[in-house]
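Figure 6 in text form: structure in, sequence out.
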């Protein structure tokens, strides 16, 4: 089964996060330049969103509670180590990717249920939200890196490789 184009877009955004943060040291990743969060928080925060959407809400599971606790939205800021944030992020991606591989154009039109009622946002809208969330925080990470004095940062969206990555939705 082919991977849905929206899932491919999400995976591209993930690769861009990795590229955007490449070369950041542990100490730099934990610096919080107010009012922004730290780069390590960004990594943990994005992992948490994917975890909540694709594990907790979709499958009603919670095998990695740390993913929700590491960099929560709407709670006091945390400053995890970059190593813990990346480890959590990679673990979450390993957990969510099998589910994402099953998504189709039809399932993207549906909604998760919460207390027996539709969640209020389609799965397709949720995947778009996650993609845009990545791009928001990629931009923020680049601003933080500039303030830290980093130069030679990525200036444009990464390489698409040797193939044409546009694939229309079926």
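Output sequence:
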């Amino acid at each position: 089964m082919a991977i849905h184009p929206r899932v491919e877009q999400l995976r591209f955004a993930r690769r861009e996060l990795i590229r955007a943060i490449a070369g950041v040291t542990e100490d730099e990743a934990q610096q919080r330049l107010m009012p922004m969060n730290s780069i390590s928080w960004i990594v943990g925060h994005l992992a948490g969103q994917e975890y909540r959407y694709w594990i907790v809400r979709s499958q009603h599971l919670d095998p990695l509670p740390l993913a929700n606790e590491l960099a929560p939205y709407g709670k006091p800021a945390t400053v995890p180590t970059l190593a813990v944030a990346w480890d959590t992020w990679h673990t979450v991606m390993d957990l969510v990717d099998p589910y994402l591989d099953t998504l189709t154009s039809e399932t993207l039109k549906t909604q998760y249920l919460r207390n027996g009622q539709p969640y209020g946002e389609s799965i397709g809208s949720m995947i778009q939200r996650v993609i845009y969330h990545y791009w928001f925080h990629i931009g923020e990470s680049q601003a933080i890196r500039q303030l830290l004095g980093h130069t030679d940062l990525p200036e444009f969206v990464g390489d698409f490789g040797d193939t044409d990555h546009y694939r229309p939705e079926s």
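Caption detail: Residues 123-147 form the longest helix (25 residues).
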